[in-house]
Specification:
Oligomer: single chain
Bound molecules: xanthosine-5'-monophosphate
Strand content: 15-25%
Strand order of the largest sheet: 2-1-3-4-9-8-7-5-6
Number of helices: 17
Helix content: 25-40%
Shape: globular
Distance between the termini: 47 Å
Number of strands: 18
Structural class: alpha/beta
Largest sheet: 9 strands, mixed
Length: 523
Amino acid sequence: MKATDQTTDQKGFLVLDFGSQLTQLIARRLRELGFYSEIHPFHYPLEKIKAMKPLGIILSGGPNSVYEEEAPHRNVKELLTEAPLLGICYGMQLIAHELGGKVEKAQSKEYGFNRVTWKSVSGGENLLSQLGQSDQKVWMSHGDIVHSPPEGCAVAALSESQHIAAYLGTKILGVQFHPEVAHTQKGEEILKYFTMGMCGAKPNWKAPQIVDHLKEKILQQVGSSDHVLCGLSGGVDSSVVATLLTKTLGPDRVHCVFVNNGLLRKNEYENVLASYKAIGLNVKGVDASTAFLSALKGLTDPEAKRKAIGRVFIEVFEASLDPKWPIQWLAQGTLYPDVIESVSFKGGPSHKIKSHHNVGGLPEKMRLKLVEPVRELFKDEVRQIGLELGLPKDMIGRHPFPGPGLAIRVMGEVTEESLAILREADHIFISKLREKGLYDQIWQAFCVLLPVKTVGVQGDGRTYAQVLSLRAVTSSDGMTADWYPFTFDFLREVSNEITNKVHAINRVVYDVTSKPPGTIEWE
Ligand code: XMP
């Protein structure tokens, strides 16, 4: 079945962003339920909505009051002719405001947890049976309230302060709370009621269908004879992109290059290259360690190191291309969060578009067109389709690893000796995490070699050796992070093993800084 085989050629759900911090979460929840969803700014043109033919439209929350002059408005009547509407928080207030209801300032604001009570209203029987209870613990954050619901809608739930917590009509559901957050009990049931009950949608956005859909799009875009170039980093995104392209176009038309920049972890280049070959990629390994190391000589500033690595990478990548390859396309692992245009009310709509030009400048110079097969997907979906494509679990579950690699984990100048020390220590730390079953609970774990020497005593002798910091964080997207609470026993074991086996290190510390104020990497 194709992902587009819904009841018609309708594609999925449209989430209109009115400036909430939670908008991405709405789209992710819908996708977890098996529905394709797209986020667009609140002013997304009506013609584009008509062309998309959404199954339902969700109006997100937002920081404004509908009465503020600069508040984002939208002609809700027009939207209603296109599909059923779900209004969340500000979205709920806007629908009421635009369709004959009334919104006002609340005497008592409702922030955080609240308990709402559902009533039985005409047409709402299925909602109640979906919830299985009339009482629901929810998460709210609002200063305005809907005093009277829009025309044609009935009050369906009240909060503890007896404010309207939900209203319902044939094609409209408004909720004052946030069903998309995990703190809202049965939030998923509310979303199911809207998507399946009110919009009649059937879940069809699951890994096998997503793979079919992406393959079809690749074929449409790349055509039947063009060739694609794909830079591999060892990470999940580029591995999935290369595998997807290879399975769609065949290995003869997908030319992959994996560069060893000499900044990878212990045995990483050999192991990753072997697994790429094992999964059938047409990959050329290029060992350019020496070129990178000489470019890094004498550099201590983190940004100078990054720039040097980026520059050499492009040179090496370009030099590695076989002139006989008839390439027209360059593949990139751009993800959906990088292409969403999010709304900024301070300076107008902001285009948060980050390009992944790991091979910056190359597309223009070589006149290559870009193919970005996973640009519709969130990271967890990329992992799912990686498994669906048969990639090994350890490749899918790998911690993110920065492009500049160990160069930004050796503080100060990067030398062959310092890299060797860091590699050994890092290998001990990561092996211990795997041995204790902790690896998958952690977003990223690594060691940082400090340019500091301290006095120690090892055996009978005094030592003067380097300090190493362990870093391990939990995170859902790398934007914020918290340090992982290892047990003292675990830290003791790792520290002992490192100081016993890596003689250049006589002191191990653990970094207990979250992000913010720290960053995940030290440089
Ligand atoms: P920070 O250190 O900014 O890192 O909290 C957030 C995430 O980005 C990774 N990172 C990089 N990735 N090139 C990359 O490809 C870089 O220069 C770079 N710097 C940081 C970091 O490992 C973490 O996952």
